[in-house]
Amino acid sequence: MTFQNILLEQPEPGIYLLTLNRPQALNALNALTLAELAQAIARVMADESARVLLVTGSGEKAFVAGADISEMQNLTANEARAFSEKGMRVMHALEALRVPVIALVNGYALGGGCELALACDWILAADNAVFGQPEVNLGIPPGFGGTQRLARQVGRAMALELIITARQVKADEALRIGLANHVYPAAELRDQGLEMARTIAAKGPVAVSLAKQAVHCGQHLDLASACELETNVFARTFSTEDQKEGMRAFLEKRAGKFKGR
Ligand code: CAA
Predict the structure, then answer these.
(1) Per residue in 62-71, pLDDT tens?
(2) What is the pLDDT of residue 231?
(3) Can you tell me which atom of ligand 1 is nearest the CA of 113?
(4) Would you list the domain boundaries of the chain?
């Protein structure tokens, strides 16, 4: 499957690298890119050997500079609704992916770009990263989940400030407010991402997947129900070969060899 606006590679077994690849428009998300993203996510989902997905932007300037403004300019309200729903579906699909998804933010992550990074499980930022929700400058609010995921990530007051003033934050502040997990020199970002992906790929895949699911689903539940969910996924792993192997390996003082079942 070849794409026009994205690249989907497998640099190492189990590790997928998805690159938004429209550098002439700073990787802005147009309808075609969103459709290709949905296809790429489906492809990763269908691969049982997939362990991690890294998401980044091509070029040195931008991760993604937002939804495509030239394509949005003349949308009717109904068309804007359909465009937003299309973007939302992609963000939900990333979040729901069985494997962890890590954003490698290499430059601008604005509007839909910030929303795409937020839909990933966590963010590794280059030291030239700039995050923001500048939509109000265009006379619109965020439309791919920014009002919700940014508030959940950095808290309501900070999210409101960033969305309503359109103030952009650089990598060091993104780290401080909990938007990015780590900041690396731009030239090291990809290698750092791959290193983290290798670490994840060596863990028990069922445990990783269920842990991701428990954190995401639990956020929408009261504490007692969320803890019950954790008990359920914890118990479920005890019917896997990987749990037997992981514990046997610990007791035999060696690294576990996991099969994902
Ligand atoms: N949509 C379409 N094209 C875009 C774009 C976008 N979001 N962002 C950048 N581009 C294009 C520019 O139009 C320009 O194209 P041309 O060379 O054909 O003129 C090219 O990318 C390079 O951009 P600049 O010349 O502007 O580069 P710069 O270095 O001077 O500025 C920038 C970089 C600060 C990121 C600036 O491009 C910018 O502000 N971009 C728009 C950011 C934005 O408002 N994003 C939110 C979009 S709305 C949204 O995302 C809604 C939603 O939530 C769903």
Answers:
(1) 999 999 999 9
(2) 98
(3) 50
(4) 6-201, 205-251
Pocket residue to mutate for ligand 1, from 58, 69, 140, most atoms within 8 A of Cβ:
69
Write the pLDDT tens digit of every residue in 171-181. Answer: 999 999 999 99
Tens digit of each residue's pLDDT (9 = 90 or more) over 179-192: 999 999 999 999 99
- For the question of whether the overall pTM of this predicted structure is more than 0.90, the answer is yes
pLDDT of residue 2: 86
Contacts of 85 (CB under 8 A, 6+ apart): none
Residue whose Cα lies nearest atom 2 of ligand 1: it is 68
CA of 151 to the centre of ligand 1 (A): 24
> DSSP states of 73-86 as a string?
TT--HHHHHHHHHH
Bridge pairing between strands 108-110 and 62-64: parallel
The yes or no reply on domain 6-201 and CATH 3.40.50.150 is no
Q: What's domain 205-251's superfamily in CATH?
A: Lyase 2-enoyl-coa Hydratase, Chain  A, domain 2 (1.10.12.10)
Confidence band for 16, pLDDT divided at 50, 70 and 90 = very high
Ligand 1 site, residue 112, Cβ cutoff 6 A? yes
Among protein residues, the one whose CA lies closest to atom 12 of ligand 1: 25
Active site residue 195: no
- Residue matched to tokens 């046997």: 248
Q: In Å, how far are 14, 34, 68 from 29, measured between CA atoms?
A: 26, 6, 5
